[in-house]
Amino acid sequence: MRRLNGLLHSRGTLAELFSSRANSFGLLRLALATAVVVSHLYPLGYGPLDPLWMRSGQQTDLGKMSVVGFFVLSGFMITGSGRRTSIGRYSWHRALRILPGLWGSLLISTLVIIPFLYHYAHGSLAGFWNHPQGPLNYLKGTWNTSLSGGWDVSGTIHEGIRRGTNHDQSVNGALWSLKYELLCYVMVGLLAAGGVLTRARRFIPLAAFALWILILNDWLNAPGWRGIPGDMGTYVAVPLLGGMSVHFLVHLGFVFLLGAAVQLYREKVPVHDGLALVALLTLAVTMRWGGLFVIGYPAFAYLLFWLAIRLPRPFQTVGRKRDFSYGIYIYGFTVEQALAMLGFVKYGKPVYLATALACTVVLAAFSWYAIESPAMRLKDWTPRPIARLKARRAAGRGEAAGDPAQAAAETAKGAAEATRSSVRA
């Protein structure tokens, strides 16, 4: 009876129960990143998509659902960052979190892993560096996530396809979602700069609702109750980021805004075990019979936030000090492609997956300790000219207030900050 009563009553709101130091977001991100690697095991090593594709009536697969989960959590966390920090500091933080790790993975993949595979396939590196679609071309087209330089490097993966060891033409097809995430970051930055996140927060759920209407309309017009609704072949050109699918702009934008709306209305979101059970059943039903995009996505989003709060305390320490999730995401695909070309698929799915996960975690740990964590330590860095300008403005405010001591203190603080900035640079 006590358990039944617990299901029927809210444990409080998300605002009351959420703590930035005690939540399971780190574990959820790690689980989602690992699920992407598991999902890619099937198409990269064997051809067909993972089993969830057919079991969901071709609505989704494990990898795409994991990306949806990432966007929900990102919407929540990034919107919180946009509300707390200035636009300059926000942009700096987002760039530090995404770009150094991405650039490191591109260099390792393009200058180490792929040359090794090319040599393995051809017996030498002849023709690799000066290939029309060589490493420089790939790096130039991928550094900003636009993937405008193509998906392969010097025909290396194409050779694997020709030999029958590989089934996908991409060196790292997992990077497709990063430009959509970057676009969402830019959107949040613009909304924060315009004061929308603080003074007109209702705009966010209204925008999410507008995208939901588009998804609902596509679903109702789809040939069947299951299957992907909407036109998957329509693209728009976005400056710097290149061509972007309208379908994913709408669907990923929707789930990102769901997370953003939860952040802005935390005081109205109940953490309710009964609602979590209903959400789980809804997700299962829509997976089986259709409506995943319209009904299942919001249910999945609620489940993620419920898990972030309700998972036992030991799970809340995962990823707090070491977050390997991003590294797993940006390295897993390339590692699986490499292992497929090297013939690991013949040992069976358990061996192939275990080897892929082990190698990916090693590279993710390297990325965290050597690139991502050092980069994040620069989050409070301020260029010397800006630090001096802040010091002069602070001193001016102190003098205007008639407090010379405060003005001197602010000037000294600004000078110290400028010195630290020059040292960190």
List the helices and strands and how they pair.
Elements: H1 2-8, E1 10-13, H2 14-17, H3 25-45, H4 52-55, H5 62-84, H6 87-122, H7 135-142, H8 156-163, H9 178-193, H10 196-199, H11 203-221, E2 235-238, E3 242-245, H12 246-264, E4 270-272, H13 273-289, H14 292-310, H15 325-341, H16 349-376, H17 384-400, H18 404-424
Antiparallel strand pairs: 1-4, 2-3
Account of the protein in words:
With 425 residues, the protein is mainly α. The protein folds into two domains: 2-376, no CATH class; 384-424. 68% of the residues lie in helices and 4% in strands. The chain has 18 helices and four strands. It has helices at 2-8, 14-17, 25-45, 52-55, 62-84, 87-122, 135-142, 156-163, 178-193, 196-199, 203-221, 246-264, 273-289, 292-310, 325-341, 349-376, 384-400, 404-424; strands at residues 10-13, 235-238, 242-245, 270-272. Strands 1-4 form a two-stranded antiparallel sheet. Strands 2-3 form a two-stranded antiparallel sheet. Helix 11 runs antiparallel to helix 12. The model is unreliable at 411-425 (pLDDT under 50).
